[in-house]
Amino acid sequence: MSDNNKPLAKLLIVDDDSDIVQVLKMGLLQNGFSVEAFTNPQEALQSFKSDAESYYLVLSDIRMPAISGIELSKKVKEVNPNVKVVLMTDFEIRDNEFSKIFPSTKVDGFVQKPIGIKDLTDKILRLIGDTKKRKKGEEAQRGKDIFENGEQR
User: Fold this and answer.
1) How far apart are CA 54 and CA 45, in angstroms?
2) Which residue in 111, 96, 99, 54 sits closest to 79, CA to CA?
């Protein structure tokens, strides 16, 4: 964890394989993230909707029963367009191939299973880096507005 024990970012992990969910959750927790993990994509979506702005990234298996990772990514982006979405697959997918097949689905990255926690952590940090900087800038601007205008929200 960081110096003040504040998590690096809040993540949502979704995979219908409970073993994968547990391994990813434990590894990412140990690397300083706050993690909500689900084996049921519908429960994951409900949790996401209840606090969508707090999540920086959704990491989801692409093939799951009921709601696929592709469908889940569409739904979370509808609720919070700024959240990053990474899909996990058992096979290699190139971003440009995916966007040709699913042009209406915005996905920020792919990882091929199995993936090491260090590689996954590095990928997540690269993806959320811009988001965290943008959020900090918005918070600073909001604080500045309150200070200058004497507004209370």
Assistant:
1) 14
2) 54
